[in-house]
Fold this sequence. Notes:
The chain has eight helices and four strands; from the N terminus they run αααβααββαααβ. It is an alpha/beta fold. It has one domain: Diaminopimelate Epimerase, Chain A, domain 1 (Roll). Strand 2 and strand 3 form a beta hairpin. Helix 3 packs parallel to helix 8 (about 130-145) and helix 7 (about 110-125) runs antiparallel to helix 8 (about 130-145).
Amino acid sequence: MTIKRILRHWLLPPWLVRRRFGPALLAAIAAAIGESEKLHRGELRFVIEGRLSLLQLLRGLSTRQRAIEQFADQGVGHTAEHSGILIYLLLAERQVEIVADSGITAKVGQAEWDALCHGMTAQFAQGHYREGALQGIAQATCLLARHFPAGADNPNELADPPLLV
């Protein structure tokens, strides 16, 4: 834990998250996830967190660890085919993490997830939040459609709207 990291989190005002991810963008993300899930048997969950709590920072919680917590909290690991993917953005650190369930990680290499995260992070760094979010969903859709193509039984197991934490 560093003072710089704490300041980065605590100088980020909560209203900034809602400004960057306003109602129109949240609706576009939800629609993109809904359309995506028609093309495969996987499940996508998109979580946006502005900043970590002081306790989380003092514990040294990494972005990856927080994404794993959200994966569990959102039930992404409880899909029928173990094909859930969490896209997690920690805005204070401008970091994206992908946490995928065991069914999809057995079929998709880490390099593909890293490329997806890098593309989103590059868009977000330029202030292109809409493009970055929709690009990430589109890339995840391609991976899921390749490995878990849509079938006759394709229930929607997770909520489509993104979650602001």
